[in-house]
Amino acid sequence: MANKLAIVISCAMLLAAACHGLEVGYYRSTCPRAEALVRAEVKKAVRADAGSGAGIIRMLFHDCFVEGCDASVLLDPTAANPQPEKLGAPNNPSLRGFEVIDAAKGAVERACPGVVSCADIVAFAARDASYLLSHARVSFHVPAGRLDGRRSVANDTLLFLPGPTSNLSTLVSGFATKGLSAEDMVVLSGAHSIGRSHCSSFVPDRLATQSDIGAPLASLLRRRCPASPTTANDPTVVQDFVTPRKLDNQFYRNVLARRVLFTSDAALLSSRDTGRMVRANARFPASWEKKFAKAMVKMANIEIKGSGVGEVRKNCRLVN
Length: 320
Hints:
It contains 14 helices and two strands, in the order H-H-H-H-H-H-H-H-E-H-H-E-H-H-H-H. By secondary structure, it is mostly helical. It starts with a helix and ends in a 21-residue tail after the last helix. Its EC number is 1.11.1.7.
């Protein structure tokens, strides 16, 4: 029964991707080594620093929610566009992994110049980081065929990326705007089982004022974070103090135990439906792993650029 369910889920994922013009194995004839080359660079980076893998998973979310999955988050500031997404408050200075994408793009360009989009590389890299950080428990195929966008505006990040102080209503509506369900939102929140956060992302609304954060965690965080974080004094802490280097369902146990950093994490218990999802994900790790894989593919299909609108960048940091 489990195998049949996995087949059904895989077919549904592939069908959904096909509806967006994407295809698993898209580069099989034009650049057959593309995915292996990306995987090699991600593996090298994650072995050196697991945090880079967490950053890459977050990068897919931050890319796809602004302008769609088009690598617009990778663009550097230029005279013509001095404030791209990369400099938006949700991304600067916390978003990381750009150098891993650069390395992957370089390897692919040497093998197949001008063929593989940066947007596809980000999607491949997020898949590979998920696989590596979950100890091979989260495994899925990534349909490809995305094109890279040319528009990237810092202010858009504030419009479309739900922040750490978001309440449940804001989270649900923000994901719905991008075609994702409340369950997708809860499932993808499990990525908070890895990575780090700056103190400024949670101190003002979780420590400086009354909140439901558990006393033991609050005490630990007060020892590690200044009472009023500033740009010059804004340390980072792990998001999951139990299994900080593993992508797993520990996040949901932390939510239930009031051991989460963000208001947006605690908000998952503020409705009966999302609370039920949290408890199910905490109890059934294998089920959450499958749902996370499916939700990652769904997220990577947001607002795909068509020909004439997008391009295949030669350099992921600059438009052609």
